[in-house]
Write a structure and sequence with these properties.
Blueprint (H helix, E strand, L loop, with lengths): L5 E4 L9 H8 L1 E4 L6 H8 L5 E5 L6 H5 L6 E5 L8 H6 L3 E3 L6 H16 L2 H9 L20 E5 L3 H12 L3 E5 L10 E2 L3 H7 L2 E4 L13 H7 L4 E4 L8 H9 L5 E4 L10 H5 L3 E3 L8 H21 L8
Helix pairs in contact: 5-7, 8-9
Length: 318
Amino acid sequence: MTTKHRIIQVGSLAGSPSANQRLAERYDVIELWKQPDRKAALAELGKGVTAIVTSANFGANAELINALPDLKAICSWGVGYETIDVQAAQARGVQVSNTPDVLTDCVADLAWGLMIAGARRMGRGERFVRAGQWGQVHGSIPLGQRVSGKKLGIVGLGRIGEAIARRGIGFDMQVRYHNRRRRDDVDYGYEAALTDLAAWADFLVVATVGGPATRHLVNREVLEALGPRGIIVNIARGPVIDEAALVAALEAGKLGCAALDVFEHEPKVPEALIKSDQAVLLPHIGSATLETRQAMEDLMLENLAAYFDTGRVITPVA
């Protein structure tokens, strides 16, 4: 009888079709989120554990990493890893993996859904019909904006940002981007200053990584540069946008629309956004399709298996 490798699972992967079950079938899983005293559980059960499974929701901070003296691999479900202390992991020689690429298209598709919904007032139109206002003689909603042929600005031209840009070409849009550095392998225009990109763009899509380095990257100056007809879309991480500045810009008429899948203090959403007809709001569902969640689950499990088989994960973050 083959002995199962023992792992620690930081939190339940409820957003994946069968991840918890498949982990339990293949490994001896310590379900950390069920432990009444996490610190005591790590001290008692952590010795000998060389791999943990987590996600951006649960992360892996330095305290957790350093509580596991034999840790060698952190396998995360999802593309974001800003809640994992990669620096602490690297200092210990611990590999960190995520699940890139497999969710790129679905997140890019949702960005476009938000963009069109914001421009064409789809959310407001649906509420209008559901409320029975269409049949009123004088019932009407304000005109929307055309998407095709406009100017698309992308904040962060990584895998997802580039997929969004490619879709923009199909809509006959001009595309420019802002990055930490210019890319020589793409033909899109580059703007070194984010305010300059916002001033040029009709649509500004946030697709950059999260974490301290990008917190409030999209601030009051950027939002006001986008202007009273400009539309901001965020499918990245909520804290990249200064949410208080966003609400203020919408209320002052200095920004046209916010179409958001992520928020600064999830799951809390400002009441001003909930009540605004200038906002389209989704509950962080960028990767929430059957196909993508299954692919994320598969790749997370493949990373874990590869570590135990070869000592190396497949998709290290650095």
